[in-house]
């Protein structure tokens, strides 16, 4: 099925839902989904954003700005997932615990606003990785319209560009919890370190990136085409100085480059170590 037909399938599906609360992060996928839902359903489509310690404030502000500019009703709530017992220990099902709490709250918000359905923005590219959060989506009956329509990331970017959305070439983003190796404790201090480090790299002009943290070592992932920019002496010395100032002990570069879900490789290590105990 070509992209235009998938887009028509998406709009038909959204229309069939009658009313929808979109879990809105201001990312590429959720922005495209929200805009399309609003175009189809008007005021029967609303945006709900979880304000989490793992979401940089710039993303929250972008979400607010988009909804104001489009005239979309926007509700923001404090997610509070760090209060879940055992969550800060960063277990392998961390994403499931987080998504379950967030979507349970969004469902309540939807009910309070007479909205029949809740939707999230995963696409078909999300099917191949370790995504425990999608299990929570399934259990709670959350809709995944982009996956239903068969749309992948590149198609969503193309359609977003055609619609005039400035998010069409925005870098992919995942919550800051994904920067931690499973089993490593998540703290407010470390979240802040990662947030500041990634913002610094963005300010330097790097596009798609991650700063992974293990103990107090920063492992920088950028696209291979930006390797040279990263190791240019002026940038390298600035990055090291800033990162050490944030509290990192070591600053390293991952020669694999940017890889989605690279911390998922540590799951097998956890299972193996537990089996050997």
Structure in words:
The chain is α/β, with parallel strands linked by helices and 277 residues long. It folds into 2 domains: 3-162, HUPs (Rossmann fold, 3-Layer(aba) Sandwich), CATH 3.40.50; 176-276, GMP Synthetase, Chain A, domain 3 (2-Layer Sandwich). It is 47% helix and 13% strand. The protein has 11 helices and 7 strands. A hairpin with a 2-residue loop joins β5 and β6 (217-222). It is globular.
Helix-strand layout with pairing:
Elements: H1 3-17, E1 20-23, H2 28-41, E2 45-51, H3 57-70, E3 74-78, H4 94-112, E4 117-119, H5 133-139, H6 145-149, H7 153-162, H8 188-203, E5 209-214, E6 217-222, H9 227-231, H10 233-246, E7 250-253, H11 266-276
Parallel strand pairs: 1-2, 1-4, 2-3, 6-7
Antiparallel strand pairs: 5-6
Helix pairs in contact: 4-5, 8-10
Provide a compact summary of the structure.
By secondary structure, the chain is an alpha/beta fold. It folds into 2 domains: 3-162, HUPs (Rossmann fold); 176-276, GMP Synthetase, Chain A, domain 3, CATH 3.30.300. It is built from 11 helices and 7 strands.
Key structural traits:
single chain; 277 residues; alpha/beta; Rossmann fold; GMP Synthetase, Chain A, domain 3; three-stranded mixed β-sheet; 13% strand
